[in-house]
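Thread: "does anyone have the structure for this chain?"

Original post by V.I.:
We have the sequence but no experimental structure in hand. Need at least a predicted one for the grant figures.
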Amino acid sequence: MANLNVTILKAGDVELKEKVVNIRRVVKVTKGGRHFSFSATVVVGNGNGIVGYGLGKAKEVSDAIQKGIDDAKKNLISVPVLKGTVPHEQAGKFGADKVLIKPAANGTGVIAGGAMRAVLESAGVHNVLAKSLGTSNANNVIKATFDALSKMRTPNTISQNRGLKLEKVFNGL
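Reply from O.Q.:
Generated one for you, tokens below.
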């Protein structure tokens, strides 16, 4: 079932902070020798529910990072954050990677590894339990995390979709 409540945002609307997750040196071997270039994975977010990721490739590291930031600003999504945590448990998948994201009590902190931590902190989630199962490829982990975050729904959205009152949704939990 497709999630229809994902909000696509424009970068000009919000102030974003960038985090470089991964920089790789890539080599193309030709008849004339080796040609080096760089690939940078960047996560941007405002720390208040808006996050995006991008991949930039260039001959220089700084150019690759700038291209990654520009690409990330084109791929922004809105994530529901309730009281500093995610509203419910959610799994996400991309390629060979699966991620599991669970809400946590206040004071727990972000318990997540590497690329997932960067995405969750950029989104403004302060208390969460997260686990990456499968590959440790940073690009796939980020995409699986975005899959899980884009499936998140607030209690208000659930009550509207089901035609129930908000109290009824909470009593069912």
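V.I.: this helps a lot. The helical segments are 61-74, 114-123, 138-150, 155-162, 166-171.
O.Q.: and The chain is about 30% helix and 35% strand.
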